Amino acid sequence: MNLNMKRIKHISIVLVLLVSSVTFAQVKFEAKVSKTKLGINERLRVDFEMNRDGDNFNPPSFANFKVVGGPNQSVSKSWVNGVSQFSKKYSYFLAPTSQGTFTLSQASIEVDGEVYKTIPTKITVTSAVSKPQDGNNADYVASENIHLVAEVSKTNPYLNEAITVVYKLYVSPNTGVSNWREIDNPKYSDFWSQNIDVKGLQVKNGTYKGESYRYVELRKTVLYPQKTGKLKIEPLSLDITVDVPTNRRDIFGGRLMTQVHKTVSAGERTINVKQLPEKGRPDDFTGAVGDYDFKVTTTKTELKASESLNLNVEVSGNGNLKLFELPKVVLPSSLEVYEPEHNEKVTTNLRGMQGRISDNYTVVPQFKGKYPIPSISFSYFDLKTESYKRISSEEIVVDVTQGPNNAIAESQPSVSGENKQPVVLNNDQFAFIKTKTTLESNKPSHFFKSKLFWSSLLVPFLMIPLAMVFRKQKAVRDADVTGNKIRKADKLAKKYLSEAKKALGQKEAFYVALEKALHNYLKAKLNIETGDLSKDKIQNLLLAKEVDQTVVSDFSSILESCELARYTPSTKVSMQQDYDKAASTISLIDKQIR
């Protein structure tokens, strides 16, 4: 009996050891969430934890969530009762983007050549929840002491009047900010926009809702509205790491800080854009709004025929300098005029665009005489007086002192015989009589041993090495898959944009053809009808085809240019820039699309 009891005891010990070793060898990899139900204004923490060190960690896509923190990695090792314990953790902080019930898909990791995956987890996102107003709650303290504000200089501007948007981050004195990053960049649809560089963030003292705060100016943007009515400025959103004081103190009595992640938004702003008044609008008004000077100058007023002078038409001042056309010059037909060279010296600051734009014409007189350059007018809308103003240049007389007389003027019939002009003979009177001849031989020629004979005999032999070289180059070209794809993409871009290229210089026809080309390209590549699609849906389709975000943004901006063309003047230079950008973007999409 005692012998049997000893055997049973030994067997039990062996079983316990076997179970322990199997349990120790088993790999555990699981996803742990801070909560399975949260409000859309709350954060979710997800920990991917494993008991064995692994490689090739692959997190899930986090669909319907934005990653606002992480991944943070932590490793711990310990000994408990002589047994080694290991733990490795990847932590993420997520912010939901919409309400509903979503599934966090599987994460994976590789341990000793085996792939392990977590179990999918369901998360329910509800409407915003009220947060407890607890002075000891770090999230509440952060929300009460951090504010992002978009300060707009004017909310009811005129069309093409400059406004500024300054984004300020306000922080209370007893709170700190360790880091931040932009998670939503504002898109200025229906505005011409220019960001002002912020060189070095300077902390300043100010007030927010009557209380003392410190603040920094994170971003400054100048906007020129291109449409009338109510226009939206999308919000700027930041993910901020906030240092919040706690009730705990260090050994010296100083208060300890804790860090929390906080999402702040400047909120959407509405701009009510006024139409420019119809009353008093000049016929030659092209959309200039601001405060301007206008002048027309020439480099010389006296010269010889076939010499050249430069005629400069210049507008300077403060306003929407890049968004209107300069008046055109009309000169006498005896002055040959070349296409103008457009120059811009414009800087943009919080007051808007400042500087000068000009068209420089090269003028070459053909005949002797005095030629007046008529007065040229420039009209603009003055924001100070809220009225239209016109500036006219003085008439300029160009005196051509030497050169042939104008044949048209000389051929006019005279009034009396006393004014008849004598016939002037020149050396070309008998130019029609040929004084040199070329004689050709009538001797019969033979093909044998002629130059044509030898050429016909040798050319086929010479073509053999050329054919071999050509075939070798063709093989190399056919093997160049990437190069062929690039050439095919460039050819496709030229095909769709050919009509737009023909219409360069004609604003309406050009932008209609350009927009049609872009839509036809999408129709061919995505096999869809684009008439009912919005720009957002087009962006989503292209992103789904693995097209780079930057390229998709460029494509959308070209579509916006086509839409805005009816509201803003366009020069041939700007049309050429839009054409080149469209060709480059179509080519890039065709290379990247899957």
From TrEMBL:
- Which residues are the signal sequence here? 1-25
Instruction: Kindly indicate whether the keyword Transmembrane belongs to this entry.
Output: yes
**What Pfam families has UniProt attached to this entry?**
BatD
Task: Could you list this entry's UniProt keywords, alphabetically sorted.
Answer: Membrane, Signal, Transmembrane, Transmembrane helix
Under InterPro entries, the record lists:
BatD
Q: Which residues cross the membrane?
A: 452-470
UniProt-listed PANTHER family: BATD, PROTEIN BATD-RELATED
**Protein name according to UniProt:** BatD
Species, as recorded? Formosa agariphila (strain DSM 15362 / KCTC 12365 / LMG 23005 / KMM 3901 / M-2Alg 35-1)
